[in-house]
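Work Package 4 report. The design task specified in the project plan requires that, given a folded chain encoded as structure tokens, an amino acid be chosen for each position. We show below one input record used in the internal validation round.
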């Protein structure tokens, strides 16, 4: 109903009394001035003037009507039709049809303001369509991710209630419950962090610090994992590289990259961490000898909840690299992945360099 009312308001008659009055006044003024200038030096009797006055008035009325109709036709095709197209498309958008698009009126060489508005509208509709798709995917994925640990907790809680359950099984089930609850907690924490990052609710606290020391501390936090899997850790960290950034946010980046590398590397594999300084940038490379990924997987690896290797889905929730990408964007850095299926992956992070200090 509202859409019809808007279209009705946008539709005007070819003939408007208000426009006719304006054209009549303008035409009368122009004709009157022209007659005064033209006949100023001529000797014309009052009778002749009176005789032609009615005819002149009729001509003014006719010309005003003609101009009003021509202006109505011009407005119909140059203003009203584009406005009706835009209103119809906006009505469809408000009803949830994000596929609504408007065809431009003119070609690329003769665009006017309406064409620019239409192009911007189509761009906005495309962005909204993408956001809606992401929202739907997000809800579907988060529902699945929440159900998995909840199902584990429910099932193993039921098993623990068995009176004759052996002590060894009881301990095993309790560990499984702890692992599932930790997975659920990590998922909720990551969702909250990602939400804050995407809504600019986290403001970076910038400070200068040695990046090599931070990388070493983060890597040592996973010592028990690499020792358990008997992985070879190869580090080459250039000394005295100082950056100016939010240390807490970048800790999130390194922890996720290291966790990913350890998760996808089979026992007795190798993890390599490199830190080098370029002219204006600091480059961190984290490489592994894990399963790698195909180019198609690499295109989506920073998308929320995307997991290229489904065999490791129980070890993560697909939010880690989305968090990494958002943090890197906030600190105005760059990140990319180089990978080949079966040969491992390398994540390359570039951060702006603030200077070097020597002890």
């Amino acid at each position: 109903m509202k859409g019809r009312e808007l279209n009705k308001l946008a539709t005007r008659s070819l003939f408007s009394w208000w426009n006719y009055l304006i054209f009549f006044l303008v035409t009368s003024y122009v004709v009157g001035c022209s007659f005064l200038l033209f006949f100023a030096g001529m000797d014309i009797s009052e009778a002749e003037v009176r005789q032609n006055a009615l005819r002149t008035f009729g001509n003014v009325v006719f010309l005003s009507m003609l101009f009003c109709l021509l202006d109505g036709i011009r407005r119909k095709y140059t203003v009203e039709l584009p406005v009706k197209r835009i209103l119809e498309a906006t009505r469809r958008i408000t009803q949830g049809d994000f596929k609504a698009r408007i065809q431009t009126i003119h070609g690329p060489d003769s665009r006017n303001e309406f064409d620019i508005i239409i192009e911007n509208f189509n761009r906005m509709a495309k962005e909204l369509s993408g956001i809606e798709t992401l929202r739907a995917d997000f809800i579907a994925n988060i529902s699945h991710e929440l159900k998995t640990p909840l199902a584990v907790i429910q099932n193993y809680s039921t098993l623990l209630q068995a009176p004759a359950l052996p002590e060894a099984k009881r301990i095993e089930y309790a560990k499984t419950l702890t692992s599932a609850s930790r997975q659920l907690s990590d998922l909720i924490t990551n969702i909250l962090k990602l939400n804050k990052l995407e809504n600019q609710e986290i403001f970076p606290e910038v400070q200068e610090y040695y990046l090599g020391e931070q990388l070493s501390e983060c890597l040592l936090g996973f010592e028990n994992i690499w020792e358990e899997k008997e992985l070879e850790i190869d580090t080459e960290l250039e000394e005295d590289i100082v950056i100016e950034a939010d240390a807490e946010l970048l800790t999130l980046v390194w922890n996720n990259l290291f966790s990913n590398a350890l998760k996808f590397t089979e026992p007795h594999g190798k993890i390599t961490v490199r830190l080098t300084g370029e002219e204006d940038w600091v480059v961190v490379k984290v490489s592994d000898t894990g399963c790698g990924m195909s180019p198609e997987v690499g295109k989506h690896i920073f998308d929320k909840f995307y997991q290229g290797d489904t065999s490791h889905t129980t070890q993560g929730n697909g939010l880690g690299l989305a968090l990494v990408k958002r943090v890197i964007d906030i600190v105005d850095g760059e990140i990319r992945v180089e990978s080949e299926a079966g040969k491992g992956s390398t994540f390359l992070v570039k951060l702006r360099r603030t200077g070097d200090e020597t002890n």
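Residues 310-317, 355-359 have pLDDT under 50 and may be disordered. Validation will be extended to a larger panel in the next phase.
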